Structure prediction request, 86 residues.
Amino acid sequence: MAVNDEDLRLTPLEISRACDSASDQANYPPILTVDQAANLLQVPKGTIYDWHSRGMLKGCCRRLGKHLRFFRDRLLLLVFNQGLNQ
Prediction:
């Protein structure tokens, strides 16, 4: 039986519970660095930079000087609910 992408959509409750434990909150605070975002999504750091440069992470990150910062919950919503199709 094929899995529909609609079945993979996260609810706000699932997103809030994704980083519920104390260790998860320490590793993945509400605002993430590039390293933390890459670890959370289990992709190489270069992939995060590539997605950002291609405009695929709009709405979930900000540039602060030379640094990128990600809103954890928005990043999860984007990846799991909207997808990164470009």
User: Anything to note?
Assistant: The chain has a mean pLDDT of 85. The CA atoms of residues 36 and 42 lie 9 Å apart.
